[in-house]
UniProtKB/TrEMBL annotation, chain A:
Belongs to the binding-protein-dependent transport system permease family. The chain crosses the membrane at residues 12-30, 100-121, 133-164, 184-207, 243-270, 290-314. This is ABC transporter permease. It comes from Vineibacter terrae. It is a multi-pass membrane protein.
TrEMBL record, chain B:
Its main location: periplasm. One of its GO terms (biological process) is peptide transport. One of its GO terms (cellular component) is ATP-binding cassette (ABC) transporter complex. Residues 1-28 form the signal peptide. This is ABC transporter substrate-binding protein. Residues 72-454 form the Solute-binding protein family domain. Belongs to the bacterial solute-binding protein 5 family. GO terms for molecular function: peptide transmembrane transporter activity. The keyword Coiled coil does not apply. It is found in: Periplasm.
Length: 330, 538
């Protein structure tokens, strides 16, 4: 067990390093941050001096090594764009992204699972066909278009929801939350629908196919033969058995939701990490981009690690295999 | 345990109820506005950039400020002028207080000028002529310059004055430097004398200002609160304005202007900007970098430049690409800038393609030639589309232009002059320039038209390498000339020189386009600054 965890940890560190190196190689091509940092009147010498002092003339591997050494010590440097500490900038944006991702994931689960159950139980019902068709739209429409359409309908035409921003927030230490104010809750609705829609359709389709599968099994027929109520059969026996893959996928998709929040945050001007990243790309703000990419890579790796460990706990065969190996060793 | 949960739930409900009840009654005098990007810092010397300076001018004030028609008027200085050609004086306004109530004196001015000219400050360019700054008494500051600098007051309208005591208390006496690993207090906080005070700053999210109750000037605004939010996505910005979530948007996307004009609740405010967008040639190299002509440089022949100039139809670009939102020009400076010569602002007539081809043939290119062109695609309004139109117009006279349009950070690295003042890697390019540093034409001559010189640092943005001895002399002389009539004559002569040489192809001034709800009145100056002190909410 310990060896298994250690091996996974070592792999995770390797992945993080690889992401960092790829990112740094890419930064060579995003352009020169100097022009964004100085005014049009700044002389050529001053530009060159600044470039030298920032270490931009060093080769990519050297820059990368500096970055890794500083990151390990928790020093992410100052943003080229605003001269604020990068660590704090990201920390300030983290709550907004996390709350949005959480609500979006919750929305996709709470709506996706019942829709999947319904379409799985009554695959030929007209409403199931409508839901199926609608879910296709959810998969195929790009996120920014959905976002803009929602803004158009609910903010511009109906005027019931805000068109952008996070509303008022309440601070708990460094964490700011929009869950405790009316405007904060209202502001969450449109972005979380936009962000969660794709996951919702994915979960709905997954639950539907699993339900169709499970409903054909013998133990469901047996349960019906025993005269159990529909509710007990559908939810107590059928649904429970479909949920294992759903939880796995939903868990893995959480990383995706956090990463894909970039588009949603840009559309809704949501003050989260994704928007920070987009602003940083426009200014070739390398310290912020590097820290953000590493953080997202860290989320992915951590979630994957957690899922792997869960498998280990859930699937006895994995444990058995290890045990036999260990036994053979003796 | 259960009781615990119940207590938390109750607390939650109570908090929700409180926040609902506490939601303030809609106050008509709150003004909400948005821009594509955020102000990058609250430090007034952090960037020499229009938006940052314009925003901070609401909180901090300069010695002399720009009035509604861009002239200088007294702000923190009541009177200023030259005692001798190399000594300036500034008599300060008495009784002015900073937002924390501390008095404003000459010590603050000296401190601010020193801070702006050292450390990580981006405003050092405004101090090249300065030798010494001294406080004479609490209300008078004198400045010695190394050579006569008649534009000093004009330049220093950009330098905002900070509180010395506040900066010293908070360890912010040096301007922020991105290369150091520490932040300064002034990045997120501000202490000035201006019409508005910084109430809350959340970088990238929102910045809240409230009026300064003890401002020395009589407010022309009626605001009680100003909320500024960056909204990156142009479509969202337009939607927010239409929905009434914001009262005003700065930088309207050109494609949305027509749509906004149709909305009865919204007005679009537009005017010419002081920036000139122009095309430049490589005059400098013996052989063009990107051309099929080897051994010589076609652009060194005036006839070729004339054929190019007179084949580009700026009115057509205005009509089609710019949707009417441009102001064609023949000069490298715009009206409103000191040194704009109105009667010389006339473009020569367009040539028919045969006539232009004949000119090219006379120059030795009967079959035209091929040349590379550099263009940004995210710097000026419709920049890439303008270049595409130019490519099509030049194709008609037999010149094949290979366009490379790219993002600004890559584009500028390619075309700008190198650290050793060597020419940029371009043959034919687009650039925009506004003499925002001085609002005077000398800045244009010095930066774009004088022969590039590593030692004097003249011509540092003369990417083209255009060189004219006579113009160089005139530009040097006008720099130190205090007699207005003599100076105007020099400007006139120098302007004639570069226009008759077809040194550049000036295209147009782009339009400054803002939009606001109908109940807002505001003032839009040509330098694209947005002074909150003129905003009225009805």
């Amino acid at each position: 067990m310990l060896i298994f965890i250690l091996r996974r940890l070592a792999q995770s560190v390797a992945v993080l390093l690889a992401v960092g190196l790829v990112a740094f190689t890419l930064f060579r091509y995003v352009g020169d941050p100097i022009n964004a940092m100085v005014g049009q009147d700044t002389s050529i010498q001053e530009r060159e001096e600044l470039r030298e002092r920032l270490g931009l003339n060093d080769p990519a591997p050297v820059q990368f090594a500096h970055f890794i050494i500083n990151s390990v010590q928790g020093k992410f440097g100052l943003s080229y764009r605003t001269s604020e500490p990068v660590g704090r900038m990201i920390l300030e944006r983290l709550p907004a992204t996390m709350e949005l991702a959480f609500v979006a994931a919750l929305f996709s689960l709470c709506v996706g699972v019942p829709m999947g159950v319904w379409t799985g139980l009554y695959p030929r019902h007209w409403s199931s066909r409508v839901l199926q068709a609608a879910s296709l739209i959810g998969v195929s429409l790009p996120t920014f278009l959905i976002g803009i359409l929602l803004i158009l309908v609910f903010a511009v035409i109906l005027g019931v929801l805000p068109s952008f921003g996070r509303g008022d927030t309440v601070a708990f230490g460094w964490w700011t939350s929009g869950f405790f104010t009316f405007s904060g809750l209202k502001a969450l609705i449109l972005p979380s629908i936009t962000l969660g829609l794709f996951q919702l359709t994915l979960i709905m389709r997954l639950v539907r196919s699993e339900m169709l599968e499970v409903m054909r099994t013998d133990y469901i027929k047996f349960a019906r033969a025993r005269g159990l109520t529909n509710r007990a059969v559908n939810f107590g026996h059928a649904l429970k058995n479909t949920l294992v893959p759903v939880i796995t996928i939903a868990g893995l998709q959480l990383g995706g939701i956090i990463a894909f929040a970039i588009v949603t945050e840009t559309v809704f001007s949501w003050p989260g990490m994704g928007q920070l990243f987009v602003q940083s790309v426009q200014f070739a703000d390398i310290p912020v981009m590097a820290a953000y990419l590493l953080l997202v890579a860290f989320f992915f790796v951590a979630i994957n690690l957690a899922v792997d460990l869960l498998y280990y706990a859930v699937d006895p065969r994995l444990r058995g295999g290890m045990a036999t190996q260990a036994a053979r060793g003796h | 345990m259960k009781a615990d949960i119940r207590r938390w739930a109750l607390a939650g409900v109570a908090a929700l109820a409180l926040s609902l009840g506490a939601a303030p009654a809609v106050d008509a005098k709150t003004f909400k506005w948005a821009n594509a990007g955020d102000v990058s810092s609250m430090d007034p010397y952090y960037r020499n950039e229009t938006f940052l300076l314009a925003f901070l001018e609401n909180i901090y004030e300069p010695l002399m400020r720009r009035d509604e028609s861009l002239g200088l008027e007294p702000a923190l200085a009541m009177k200023w002028g030259q005692i001798s050609p190399t000594t300036w004086f500034f008599d300060l306004r008495s009784g002015v207080k900073f937002h924390d109530g501390s008095p404003f004196t000459a010590a603050d001015v000296v401190f601010s000028l020193n801070r702006a000219s050292s450390g990580g400050s981006n405003m050092k360019g405004y101090f090249t002529s300065v030798k010494a700054i001294r406080k004479v008494n609490d209300l008078r500051v004198e400045v010695d310059t190394a050579y006569p600098d008649p534009l000093l007051a004009s330049k220093w309208a950009q330098i905002l004055i900070m509180s010395k005591a506040w900066a010293e208390k908070n360890n912010a006496t040096v301007a922020a430097d991105a290369t150091k690993n520490e932040e300064t207090f002034a990045t997120r906080n501000a202490m000035g004398t201006g019409p508005f005070m910084l109430k809350e700053r959340r970088a990238g999210e929102k910045t809240i200002l409230v009026p300064n109750p003890s401002w020395w000037d009589k407010p022309k605004h009626n605001l009680t609160e100003v909320i500024f939010t960056p909204v990156t996505n142009p479509a969202t910005r337009v939607a927010a304005l239409k929905a009434g979530d914001i009262d005003m948007m700065y930088e309207v996307p050109p494609q949305d202007t027509d749509n906004l004009k149709k909305d009865p609740n919204i007005k679009v405010i537009e005017g010419p900007e002081t920036r000139i967008v122009y095309l430049g040639f490589d005059h400098e190299r013996k052989e063009l970098l990107e051309s099929n002509i080897k051994g010589k440089n076609p652009f060194q022949d005036k006839r070729v430049r004339e054929a190019f100039y007179r084949s580009i139809d700026v009115e057509a670009i205005k009509r089609t690409v710019m949707r009417g939102q441009s102001f064609p020009t023949a000069l490298m400076v715009a009206p409103g800038i000191n040194g704009y010569v109105k009667d010389l602002d006339k473009r020569p007539s367009l040539l028919k393609p045969e006539e232009a081809k004949k000119l090219l043939a006379e120059a030795g290119y009967p079959n035209g030639f091929e040349v590379g062109m550099d263009c940004p695609n995210d710097r000026y309004v419709n920049d890439e589309k303008i270049c595409q139109a130019v490519v099509a117009m030049l194709a008609r006279i037999g010149v094949k232009v290979n366009l490379l349009a790219q993002t600004r950070s890559k584009y500028f690295t390619k075309i700008l002059r190198k650290a050793d003042f060597g020419p940029g890697d371009t043959s034919f390019y687009m650039l925009g320039w506004s003499p925002a540093a001085t609002y005077d034409v000398h800045n244009v001559f010095e930066s774009l038209l004088q022969t590039p010189n590593k030692d004097t640092k003249k011509g540092s943005f003369n990417v083209s390498g255009y060189s004219n001895k006579k113009l160089d002399e005139l530009a040097d002389k006008m720099e130190g000339e205090s007699d207005k009539a003599k100076r105007d004559a020099m400007i006139r002569e120098a302007t004639k020189l570069y226009t008759e040489d077809y040194a550049y192809i000036p295209l147009h001034q782009q339009a400054v386009i803002w939009a606001a709800r109908k109940n807002i009145t505001l003032h839009q100056p040509a330098d694209n600054r947005f002074p909150l002190r003129f905003v009225q909410v009805k």
